[in-house]
Amino acid sequence: MSSITLIGTGNMARTIGTLALAGGNTVEVMGRDQSKADDLAKALGGGATTGKWGAVPAGDIVITALLYDGVVPVVAEYGDALAGKVVVDISNPFNAAFDGLAHGEETSIAQEVAKVAPAGASVVKAFNTIFRNVLDKGRPNVFIAGDSARAKAGVGAFVESLGLRPLDVGGLKMAHWLEGMGLVTMGLAGNGVGHWDFALGVNEFTG
Questions:
Q1: Does residue 46 contact residue 18 with C-beta atoms inside 8 Å?
Q2: Is 141 strand, coil or helix?
Q3: What angle do CA 169, 70, 26 make, to 5 degrees?
Q4: β-strands 165-170, 141-146 pairing
């Protein structure tokens, strides 16, 4: 069982929170709008709690369920409250045309988070290649990137509690390429696949 704090009150927070509770994890919700955080925790049920914005999260794993441009500022705002935590960035920094990354550099939101996170915090990229509707009803692979083996093991155990398969792609530098994979899913949804009910994954072949 993992202890999870969700920073954010949108659809991804709701979906991950629902799966987390079903998997036997504890869930805390934090939102800048306290009433929205309270409403989400109540909707989740299962003993989900709320925390005060900016306070030390109760969860050992802190998932920033935010739009990409809010992630780094919020982590910076929380500051030392995140010391010793595993911070999981799930965002995708798409440009306005959804045909490139907004930052336009070989970096990632997760790497930028690591620059402002307090000492002792570990940053992991995960969940960004999965559409919410698929996460809500499917069993997709969850690609994970991070520099701390211990942090990735903890996130991997959490992913497994959701009934999903974690796949470690390497260090935090790989988060840039995971964001690129997120962009590929958008291209497939609009072109070759033509709908949103799919996810990228790995099939292993032996023999």
A1: no
A2: strand
A3: 65
A4: parallel
Q: Over pLDDT 90: what percentage of the chain?
A: 95
Separation in Å, CA 23 to CA 3, 20, 127, 154, 203 = 11, 5, 16, 14, 25
Give the global pTM. 0.96
Q: How confident is the model at residue 207 (pLDDT cuts 50, 70, 90)?
A: confident
**Greater model confidence, 99 or 111:** 111
117-128 burial: b if 16+ Cβ within 10 Å, else e: bbeebbbbbbbb
Count Cβ neighbours within 10 Å for each residue of 153-180 and write b for 16 or more, e otherwise.
Answer: ebbbebbebbebebebbeebebbbbbbe
User: pLDDT grade, residue 80 (50/70/90)?
Assistant: very high
| Residue 83 to residue 79: CA distance in whole angstroms | 8
When computed from its CA atoms, the radius of gyration of the chain, rounded to whole angstroms, is 16
Burial of 36 (0-12, 13-18, 19+ CB in 10 A): middle
C-beta of residue 30 within 8 angstroms of C-beta of residue 37: yes
